[in-house]
Design a protein that fits this description.
This protein is of the alpha+beta class and 166 residues long. It has three helices and six strands, in the order αββαββββα.
Length: 166
């Protein structure tokens, strides 16, 4: 039996359709938000980004702007992908401490000044209610998987580029 040959156009169409289906499947499974105790591993591909120019690194973030969002934070989530995080935005500068009540994953937190410079970085342990006070006043706080800042060369004193709409 002879082998059926495809035209170059139909082969290209098949490749494009396959890539589109793959992209849709990845997008559908990439971000599961379950606010009541669920899992949120990675933000969607169009998520806001926090950049660290001195370290040539970035994190895709979910933003917590309201009191309720800031209080909930990453509580009860079971994972957070490397390169993902939560950016807490406060209405003004603060010295409010963070804790890990009901937070199941180890995190690192960077406290960021109103001038968008990292003033402190600390590691926090799951379910620990120890208060983590910043070394200086801050306006933003960024939580990421524990050790991400160290692994990526991000340190206190470095500038931070935040999403433009903050």
């Amino acid at each position: 039996m002879p082998i059926a040959r495809r035209s170059p156009r139909s082969s290209l169409l098949l490749v494009v359709l396959s890539l589109a289906l793959l992209a849709a499947a990845l997008a559908a499974g990439a971000w599961r938000v379950a606010r009541a105790g669920g899992d949120a591993g990675a933000p969607p591909p169009d998520a806001p980004m926090v950049r660290f120019p001195a370290a040539n690194a970035f994190v895709l973030v979910e933003i917590a702007r309201t009191d309720a969002e800031r209080q909930r934070g990453l509580m009860e989530r079971t994972r957070l992908d490397d390169g993902a995080g939560m950016l807490f935005v406060f209405p003004g500068t603060s010295t409010t401490p963070f804790w890990m009540k009901n937070t199941l994953i180890p995190l690192s937190i960077a406290f960021i000044s109103e001038e968008r410079v990292i003033v402190d970085i600390q590691d926090m342990q799951p379910l620990d209610e120890t208060l983590h006070f910043p070394a200086a006043r801050y306006r933003y706080a960024l939580e990421v998987p524990q050790g991400w800042f160290a692994r990526n060369g991000v340190t206190a004193g470095q500038p931070v580029e935040l999403p433009a709409d903050l």
